[in-house]
Amino acid sequence: MKIAQHGSNPFLTRVYRIVQLAPAKHPSEGPKHPMIMRKYVFILPAILVATGAAVVLISFRQATRPEEPHCHVPAADPSLITAAKKPAKGCVFKTVYEGEGLDPSFVLATPDHVLRSEQRGLEWLVKAQANDGGFGSGSHARQDIMDPHAVSTDPATTAMVGMALMRMGNTLDKGQYAAQLKRATDYLLVQVESAPKGAVNITQISGTQIQSKLGANIDVALTTQFLSNLLARIGEQHGTYLRAKRALNTCVGMIQRSQNADGSVQGDGWAGVLQSSFAASALESAKNVGAEVDEESLELARDYQKANFDANTGSVATERAAGVTLYAVSSSTRNSAAQARAANEAVERAKKEGKVAKDAPMDSKALEGAGYTPAEAEKMNTAYQVFNAAKTQAQADNVISGFGNNGGEEFLSFLQTGESLVIAKDQGWKNWYGQTTKRLVDIQNQDGSWNGHHCITSPVFCTATSLLILSVNNDIEHLLAQGAVKYK
Predict the structure, then answer these.
(1) In terms of DSSP H, where are the helices of 337-428?
(2) What is the rounded CA–CA span in Å between residue 136 and residue 155?
């Protein structure tokens, strides 16, 4: 008898030797060594049991090895999985886009120092929740009030906190702060459901820090974004789904009613371009989860943002950005990202199929070769050029510095830039993440919060926005879905 390649395994070697000593099994042969036969019958099962136990112990030891820095993302719901590639260690992602798995090289695990910063910020933030489930930023007239429990709640701030809780792994049913998220969700749904018919905002509150600096209708824009994020995370069978979907469609209708002829949103604040930018990205997110979004309204909103930046000259229209280049270019970057990715992937696909020359530059002609009409090609090429030029300016040191210090508007601009890089599938997002997280961790307050040093100073709003930035790598799947290409 021969045993192939038992190698240096002592258990298999022992089995081999015992088998060699065993009596022949041919019927014509009797047992030549009765003692050996009895020992063989006893020892062989014992060795096999010992071998199995050793394998189990080794497997258990390997399975319980300490993890490296990880994401706050909860494990994937098996019912939602369509396909997957193995992600970077520590993060769990579940969906594929346009037949391609999520590239593990695009994923970045959260460094330890960022995890610690996130945890401190989150612990401070949940304590700021009011009895009605909402969170508040306070009024523009009393920016000196920094106690989160000494101000009135408002939908815009509550929506930002809710999105931060979700991005850091909480759902309505699971997570350390699921209860806080559920109360914030109920608060926002009541605000939407209580709004008068035909209104353009979901609240009667006026004069908040967020409204004064961003725009009178910022509450509905941010709540739309929140509801889109919520619907992307709960299945249609969830008890809150239909209620949240109705509320989302109500919010979408409000944004579209408040849209000006040029694509901006009524009720500009100090930096109205940011209100219009968040309204545009809210429509984009809402469309992605099946809301009733008018395509013309979405295109008009995107065109307005792209028009604020001239890709040929690098000039920036800052009249509605309080004269601050950062606000304008981050908005242009955010609202051209999905189309820029669509243009790039369509042309790359066309090159592989031989429809476009492999060395062809990205321009309208290449996009026509990829299947776009001349008018579509011109629009998509504009988005591509604007995105690639604006993203560079949005990350330039002299632009990031703003006034030389940070207010809530700066935090919002950083958030827009980071999300746009992920949506566009731009590998430069990792460099942005490293630089921006360092900036935020360095200026975090000792109590775990962040606050602005001008304009939007609210510690609740600034902490929620900072956490959304630090944990953007937790949301890669959801952000990529917004930019998924529908090939022609």
Answers:
(1) 337-352, 364-369, 374-394, 397-400, 408-423
(2) 8
Total-model pTM:
0.78
3-class secondary structure, 486: coil
Answer whether 478's CB lies under 8 Å from 178's CB: no
Q: CATH number of the domain at 126-482, out of 3.40.50.300, 1.50.10.20, 1.10.700.10, 2.60.120.260?
A: 1.50.10.20
Helices (H), 30-154: 34-63, 112-126
Backbone angles phi, psi at 446, to 5 degrees: -65, -30
Spatial CA neighbour of 475 closest among 102, 41, 63: 102
Q: How far apart are CA 212 and CA 268, in angstroms?
A: 8
For tokens 């889109």, what's the residue? 228
Minimal CA–CA distance to 158: which of 138, 188, 132, 182?
Answer: 188
Contact yes or no for 212/269 (Cβ under 8 A): yes
Q: How far apart are CA 281 and CA 422, in angstroms?
A: 14
Of 401, 408, 405, the closest CA to residue 462 belongs to: 408
- The Cα 267–Cα 369 span in angstroms is 42
Q: Is 274 helix (H, G, I), strand (E, B) or coil?
A: helix
What does DSSP assign to residue 318? -
Instruction: Quote the DSSP letter at residue 65.
Output: P
Tell me the pLDDT of the chain (488 aa) as tens digits. Answer: 434 444 444 444 443 444 444 444 444 344 444 444 444 444 444 444 444 444 433 443 333 333 333 444 433 333 333 333 333 333 333 333 343 556 788 888 899 999 999 999 999 999 999 999 999 987 776 867 778 888 999 999 999 999 999 999 999 999 999 999 999 999 999 999 999 999 999 998 999 989 988 889 999 999 999 999 999 999 899 999 999 999 999 999 999 999 999 998 998 776 777 888 889 999 999 999 999 999 999 999 988 888 877 777 766 666 565 566 777 788 888 888 999 999 999 999 999 999 999 999 999 999 999 999 999 999 999 999 988 988 888 888 877 765 556 777 788 889 989 999 999 999 999 999 999 999 999 999 999 999 877 778 899 999 999 999 999 999 998 888 877 655 43
Query: What is the DSSP-derived secondary structure letter of residue 455?
Result: S
Residue 154: how many other CB atoms lie within 10 Å: 28
Domain ranges in the chain?
10-63, 126-482
Nearest partner of 279 among 322, 219, 320, 325, judged by Cα: 219
d(CA 246, CA 109) in angstroms, rounded, equals: 36
Between helices 112-126 and 155-167, what is the axis angle to 10°?
Answer: 140
